[in-house]
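Quality-control log, excerpt.
Job 1 of 2 completed; input and output follow.
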Amino acid sequence: MNRRCSSIKKIISHEKQINKKIRRIAMKKRTLSVVLGICLLAAAMVSGCEKKGVEQSPKSDSSKQEEEQGSTDDKAEGSAKSASDVTVRYICLTKGIPYFDPIIEGMKDSVEKAGATFQDTAPDTSDATAQIPLIEAAIQDKVDVICISPSDPDALCATFDKARDAGIIVLCVNDDVTGNEDRRDGAVMSTDYDVLGKENFEAFAESMNYEGKFVALSSKTGTPFQENQMQIYRDMMAEDEKYAKMEFVDVLYGDDEATKSLTEAEAAIQKYPELKGIISPTTVGIVAAA
């Protein structure tokens, strides 16, 4: 048992090092992407652009363009705000995850440099509906932009609609409401998550010598990013014979809580005597299991 635990810990440690390198690159891209995204949104609010005009496609009829441009200009004159009147509020996935620190830092710097007000908040848990009261509070406070790392691709959409109906720009950050893209105004992704998932799984598989049983330690059921990452693992195993001797035996959910993640990892080691590896698409799980 001790030898097996040591082997698993070595694989988790190796995965942790891989993730650290990948995340360092991703964090730099993430900070830059978020800064650019927030700057564009702040600029749109300051100039008085219409909320949904950002994603409108150019029209082929030049006369219609001129008419619409005139209408937009009239609205802009009446709705323009100064930077000091713009408030951007970021709603994180949950409290206490260092992964999101660069996002918050990038937003805060860019928004405040533009002269606008930046606020951030987060629920105590990563439950699918935990962010809803925070979105509703932002609507009540009449913020101009809600940036959010969504906990679920479906559960938040009705509240997004309320925010947008109130004239608030809704921007998904670091993750998206996949399948419901029309329910938000835009999305800022930190990196190509498909590439990230493939590189991470390949390195993990190599550390297992492409054989043996493994589990995934995720955050919670339905979280878009983690679910997508695990589907990538499954697809790679199905499409390439070099993974034929690997067996994906279970998915564990630690709710992005360190104690629960550790408990789930320990239980998996007991449940699966031949377990060789634990892969985690969440930084909380990696740290807890290691």
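Job 2 of 2 completed; input and output follow.
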Amino acid sequence: MGIKKMLFVTDFDELWFDALESLMDLRKAGLDHIVFLHVINREKVAMRRGKGYLKEEETKLKQMADVRFIDWAESIFEKGMECGAYVVVGKYVAKVLTTVEAEKVDLIVTGAHKRTGLEKFYADSETLELLRRTQTPVLVHKYMLPTGKVNAHPFQRPLLATDWSPPCERALETIISAKDSMEKVIVVNAISEASMKGKSKTELQQIQKDSKKRLEDVVTTFRDEGLEAETHLAIGDVVSQIETAGREHDATMIVTGTTGKESWRTRWLGSVSQKLAETSELPTLLVP
């Protein structure tokens, strides 16, 4: 296990080469192969009344992408890494999944998007569909924020948000596999108020005690791997508590699983991940 081969999906809007450079800390953890992918929406070259299929437009868009990728590839080769590129026409999710299968990548990197008219990032329906259909970790990267802030080293101080589910355990393993690119890890368990409702004082105290014990166990796991770690236990709205912990601990990325207990997959993909993509300034790494 590890992140040796990365699929970098770009529309040349949010993610440019400088965004890719921000992920080069992963070379310390074994990254040695980058695959570029640019998907041209079929609607841009689809049949038009009186014009037919816009073949010339397709050729122009492909050539523009090829020129950019050739330039990027030269820089990758200079670093002693391998590189490949795809420029394809079709549906975004289908083409990403096809490339993932063909290249057997360990990580998919895609951009967040800015909602028209608002200075806010969001996860669009294509990103959410990709998260539902892939078994490969997906990093929704937010390299440069509307404020001008740059997330220059996402893997430096990741925040692991866990609900103790198997996918969150896999998220922990993903962090360990990339440990050589990190300074420390912040481990957060956010307990929703809804899950505490109706519990007695004794039950609530036991839940907090058990959570603290599990957090310390995770810290021990990280420290045994040579990674410094600290914990944060919170009760309240899950998204806001994760964001608050990220700010308080100066995290550089949020990492979590995408499926799990208590309909976590539905809640996460339908609510939590989308809200984090909309409100958090941090890149978000989601592990199936």
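Post-run check on job 2. The radius of gyration is 20 Å.
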